[in-house]
C-alpha cells in the first residue's frame, strides 16, 4: 500500500498481447542496431564482425598490460599510466596487423619483446643479445668422424626465436645477434617503417 509502505497481498497479472505481437515479428532474426545510416548491410556486418577485437583489447589492457590496479594517485600520473598502456596496446595491434596471416598472440609478442635487449659496451658499439635460443642435445659428427651428442641451440623448437624472425620478416628487416657500430644500428632502425598497404 502506498500510504503505509506495506506490501499488498493482492497481485495483478496482465499479459501485454500487443507487445508480444510486436516482438513476434523478429522471431528467427538477429537484429543489429546502428547509428551509421550511410553503411550498407555488408559494411554493418563487417564492423559487427570485428567487435570481438574491441572486447579483446579491453581484456588485453586489463590482464596483459596490467592497466589495473593503478598504483599512482595524482591525475597527471594516472593519465601517464593510461597513456603508456594505450601506446603499448597500439604497438601490439600494429604488430599483429603487420603480421597478417602469421598473426602471433599478445602473450607471444610480449615474450619476444621482453627477450629483445641490447647492450652498449662503449660509445661506438651496440650488441644485440641472443633472441630466444633453446638448448637441446643433437647428434653431430666429432673431429674423428664419430657421432656424439652435443648441447646446442635448436632453432626449430624455439618459439620465441621463430616469432622474432616472423616479426622481422613482416617489416622487411633483419638484425640477428651481433655486435655493430652505432651508425649501422641507427641505419637498421631507420629501415623499420610502418606502411599500411591499400587493398
TrEMBL record:
InterPro entries: RNaseH-like_sf
Name recorded for this polypeptide: Transposase
Protein's organism: Peloplasma aerotolerans
Taxonomic path: Bacteria, Bacillati, Mycoplasmatota, Mollicutes, Acholeplasmatales
